[in-house]
Design goal:
single chain; 108 residues; alpha+beta; Alpha-Beta Plaits; 4-stranded antiparallel β-sheet; 4 strands
Length: 108
């Protein structure tokens, strides 16, 4: 399902049949469950933010969860959980690398 040469996988909120996955907040829920899996482990208050290894995003109008491969090395069972979630719900998984947002140039 995922190739080890990519740095991230995108779990897309679209089934292989082309239907939008529901509920509409699935990405935030999945990322929230994964919030405790982070570099350095759980710290006080870390449950209040998403893990840098599992981030909900909207990409080209599609809700996604971007899962960093570092999760697989540090918490294999957590990695299996998100990959099984995608498989069990027939969600499309794309291997890619998330690029940082670039600020738009100032207009004069």
């Amino acid at each position: 399902m995922a190739h080890p040469s990519t740095s991230e996988v995108f779990i897309q909120g679209i089934t292989h049949g082309g239907k939008t996955f529901r509920p509409s907040d699935w990405a935030e829920r999945l990322a929230g469950v994964m919030s405790s899996f982070r570099p350095g482990g759980v710290r006080p208050g870390s449950h209040l933010s998403y893990s840098p290894w599992c981030i909900p995003k909207v990409i080209n109008g599609v809700k996604c969860v971007v899962v960093n491969r570092a999760l697989q090395g540090h918490e294999p069972m957590a990695w299996d959980f998100v990959m099984n979630f995608a498989r069990d719900n027939d969600l499309q998984v794309v291997e890619a690398c998330l690029l940082p947002d670039v600020a738009a140039p100032a207009q004069r």
